[in-house]
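Worked example

This section walks through a single chain of length 465. The input is the sequence exactly as stored; nothing has been trimmed or padded.
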Amino acid sequence: MNRLAHLAEKRVTPPLSAGLTLRQRAEASLRELPDDFEAVSPTALRQMFHDLRVHQVELEMQNEELRQTQLALDTARARYFDFYDLAPVGYLTLNEHGLIEQANLTTAAILGATRDALVKQPISHFILKEDQEIFYCYRHQIIETQQQQSCDLRLLKAGGTPFWARLEAIAVPDGTGAPALRIVLRDISARKQIETELEQHRHHLESLVASRTSSLLIAKEVAETANRAKSTFLANMSHELRTPMNGIMGMTVLAQRRATDPKQIDYLAKVTQSAEHLLAIINDILDVTKLEAERLSLEQADFTLDSVLKNLDRLMGPKAAEKGLKLSLDVASELANQVLRGDPLRLGQILLNITNNAIKFTAAGAVSVRVQLAEEGPIDLLLRFEVQDSGIGISTEEQKRLFTAFEQGDGSMTRKYGGIGLELAISKRLVQMMGGNIGVDSQLGAGSLFWFTIRLGRGAARASP
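Given that input, the structure is written out below as tokens.
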């Protein structure tokens, strides 16, 4: 009895590790109990029953935690399958033999079959025969590279209707380690239809463009032919007119030499003046036809600005003096005497055209011609020429039409001042051929400043002053 009592007392405070659970302590206590329960003290039994009740509560709490965890797992699983089945794209899994292992409801809807009818079916049953080789290569490439790949091919619905689909797949090992494919499936028939229509529309537009281009080329050729014919006609007419005009002018000069009657001399002078004016118009028309036909070429010769400006003064000085205008020429002496290379005749023609216009539209005051060095290079120079007058000026609207052939600032000017509006158009084309630009700065009633730039080469030698 004393031995049993001693064991019971020991069970009241068993020497177990503080880290043991109530269950472990209760089980250890039960294992140490003797077969004779009468020998156990009431205190030890009460302690044992207390531990068992606490353990029971602990088990119930653990069971409740397990139940809540299972409920959360079931909810998450249901949510996952909702997302899986109701996804806007199809999901399906193929095993290593190409059989459908899993498919969501969207896949079933796309293929026009129930999910049960799809499972364990070969995917090849739903691929158009002509595209099965494409899928075989696609599947082989994914397994080989272990990378996600995409592919467009034609599938078949359960009823045999073909449609375009896009597959995006990746290889994953199944439970046995064999390669399986997880595929995202999209029906792209609408997009393919739009692409087909766009392609047809593009081909139609290309056909229209080609047809229109052909028509424009024909029209362009007809217009160019007509323009060449016009240019040839005008050139021939100019030559035909100039020949008798030179005869008239020559005979008029001979008649002036023999004339003694003042009235007759005055008549002959007016004939000469009119003939010279008509010859200038004919020459302008001939230049325009050559420019339009691209048959006008520039001469390359050595010259100095001094010679060009002296010729300008010789021709325009008397005309300015007749109107009481002062004609001034301003150019640095070193620039005036520098030997340049270009076309002095065409440069003189540009200066004559612009200076003549300045004198024509200026009633009082002065006309100034200035030349400046705008840019100097190792082999050429860029010169800027300016012709400024104190004449009637030009409005902003009229300036836009000023350098167009057969245009003048105002149609009434033709009647008042004469001319046919070719000089500035010719000058613009010549300036462009010489690598420069031309323009005007003017205000109505405040005079005008015509300017142009040309590029001229350096001559072989320097002229003596």
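What to look for: The CA atoms of residues 91 and 184 lie 5 Å apart.
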